[in-house]
Amino acid sequence: MTGYQRGELIVCSKPYAYALGTEYRGLRCDHCFKKCNDLKRCSQCSFVYFCDKNCQTRGWGLHKLECKYIMNAKQKPLASTRLISLVLLKVKKYGLDNPFEEVLGRKMSFGTLMSHSKNIIKDKKSYQLMLILMREISNYIGPANVPDPEEFAEAYGRMRVNGFSITDDNDSEVVGCGVYLGAAVFDHSCEPNAEVVFDGVNLYVRAKQDIPQRDINQVFVSYINQLQLTHSRQSALKELYYFRCQCIRCTTSLYDDKMLEVLIDGKEAEEQLKNIKEKLQNVKEQLKKLEKMVDQHASLSSIEEKCRKEIEIQDQILGKKNIYWIQTLVIAFNVCIKLKKWIDAISFGNLLTEPYRFYYGPYSRHLGIHLFKIGKIQLYYGSPTDAKDALKQAENIMKVTHGEQHFLYQDLVKLLAEIQK
Ligand SMILES: [Zn+2]
Ligand SMILES: [Zn+2]
Ligand SMILES: [Zn+2]
Question: SET domain: from which residue to which, for each copy (predicted)?
């Protein structure tokens, strides 16, 4: 066995500490994050919820660290406050070296994680933010549990650098946040060869292509949203991780050119180019307005109407892998699903498939989930043949990205079996 084969599991990591998103409290289990209609409250703090005795028992190891503080808190803590407090309480109780996870011969504990604490202390703005957080945490778990600023910066930095948003692919939602020791060994690339997927709160890293050597230094995951221009990706990476990415996408202009591609025919190209620059500026401004409408929960029909108008304009001037085109389509696709305009959702969704394949690669979680979604809509409201085609493609991809044991992959296989009956 030399390298990793596409689809092979590289690491399965359980969270070191994690917290359910504040808005999901009472809707999902605080231990396993599954949705449940019959959740039971913790009998002591009455704040966190569990599916049943089983989840409560399994979750107690972590929850016991915070339960009494939650019980006594005047203002109940947000998920982010709970996470950093859990980390501090856990380090205080077990030290920096315990527990640990071994990944390919490397021993990972909270103490081995990168913190960039010096950068946090050096940067006025992040230092001020940190002091505010320290005060808040001190009010919650008491000053005796909060170390001095230097040590706090270590823990806070480790959490910031190694924290993951825990997503539920079924709903495409971020449901919580956590720190994972085993997953922290991997470096970043904007063109990663491994994919991070969650099943409940457990994190799985799988090879999305063949990787020639079984070597940590050859495995790359993406820390950020890949669907951004190079300068945006660079500044996201610099802000949180303090490094400059040197991957192929950051050092060549191929992807940026595609992301900014506009349609011009040969004749009078110069004149058109000038013209199109103005139009492009307008496209960007309108997209910003659209995003604002989504953020401010404008009425779905007004968002839909604006999307249609923009898509009609953009269709004439933007390349079909242009990033503004993609971003507008994503909004249109989601809003049509919410409005139950299934046929429109299918047509917007179909336009996203090829750009996703291009930017995320043929075996990516994004593409697999996208095709699964489209397939389901097709099945109930579109063409059964197209449904089957999309779901089969999704199955092929998710076998690699999610693995055969993942609940979502199993749902997909069941659905395919039903259709084939
Ligand atoms: Zn549960
Ligand atoms: Zn409790
Ligand atoms: Zn890069």
Answer: 43-224
Strand 49-50 to strand 40-41: parallel, antiparallel, or no bridges (unpaired)?
Answer: antiparallel
Between β-strands 100-103 and 106-109, what pairing exists: parallel, antiparallel or unpaired? antiparallel
Ion ligand 2 residues within 5 Å by Cβ: 42, 44-45, 67
How close is the Cα of 69 to the center of ligand 2, in Å?
9
| Across 117-144, average pLDDT | 94
* Selection from 402, 401, 396 nearest residue 360 by Cα: 401
pLDDT tens string 153-204: 999 999 999 999 999 978 788 999 999 999 989 999 999 999 999 999 999 9
Ligand closest in space to the Cα of 50: 1
Q: What is the pLDDT of residue 269?
A: 64
Centre of ligand 3 from the C-alpha of residue 107, in Å:
27
CB 50 within 8 A of CB 31: yes
Q: Which residues neighbour ligand 3 (ion) by CB within 5 Å?
A: 190, 245, 247, 249-250
pLDDT of 240 reads: 86
Q: Is 125 exposed, middle or buried (0-12, 13-18, 19+ CB in 10 A)?
A: exposed
CA of 278 to the centre of ligand 3 (A): 29
How many angstroms is it from 63 CA to the middle of ligand 2? 6
Q: What is the helix, strand, coil percentage profile of the chain, to 5?
A: 55, 15, 30
* Shortest-distance ligand to the CA of residue 220: 3
For residues 278 and 367, the model is more confident at 367
Contact present, 244 and 237 (Cβ < 8 Å): yes
CB within 8 Å of 168: residues ≥ 6 apart:
33, 175, 198
pTM score of the predicted model: 0.92
Is the separation of the CB atoms in 133 and 101 below 8 Å?
Answer: no
3-state DSSP call for residue 17?
A: strand
pLDDT digits (tens, 9 = 90+) for 261-299: 988 766 666 677 777 788 888 899 999 999 999 999 999
Residues 6+ apart with CB under 8 A from 171: none
Tell me the sheet residues that pair with 207. 194
Question: Strands (DSSP E) along 90-191, which ranges?
Answer: 100-103, 106-109, 163-168, 173-180, 187-188
Q: How far is CA 242 from CA 115, 117, 237, in A?
A: 10, 11, 6
Q: Which tokens hold the place of 337?
A: 């699903």
Provide CB contacts within 8 A for 154, sequence distance 6+: 115, 117
Cα-Cα end-to-end distance for the chain? 39
